[in-house]
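Q: What structure does this chain adopt?
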Amino acid sequence: MRTNTGAIAMAVVALFLGVAAAAQFRSQDVYSRSLQLETPSSLTTLIANLSDRNNELRNEIFDLRRDIESATNSVSSGQGTLSEAERQVLRLRVFSAQSAVAGPGIGIRIDGGFDERALSDLVNELRNAGAEAIAVNDVRVGPRSYFTGTPDRAIAVDGHALRGPWIVHAIGASDVVYVAMTRTGGIIGQFEVIYRNTHFAVTKEPALDIPALAAASR
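A:
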């Protein structure tokens, strides 16, 4: 039991840290693409927001490590139960997009020109904001999902071609994720600078159902 729980804990931490690191690296792309369009005052806001996101990410990693350590110590001392290991398995399945998820969150509707790099930026920003599960036009996005363009201007997620308007659903604390997306200097504001003829609508959703990850299309 101790060995299984330890392995589960390590797997959860490794997966979370890998996703978090990749998201933090990739999410800078949208900002670098819009720097030439910004004024000195708006650049100051962007720098402040980047610092805030870095601090939030560090806090999330610290909290996860603390929770995992606490659960592992409980099992090692004989105070833990099978349910603790089961919760870690469920958490791992959510992180890896292997299970369907239901709960509150937000929706983002994108009408107009958009591209695969921007969609990747948006997904990573949602993860940074604490989204537990994400789907685009009802296609689940996993930690290793990839985004490509198509000749007819659709966006493919893991090889599944999706045409606009694109509806992005994210399950998580709806108030927190909504503010992260819509705050001044945030990613939606940056998109509105880059894609001036595209409409972005962000809404809080009381109940969402996001499917498990589908097999990649060849």
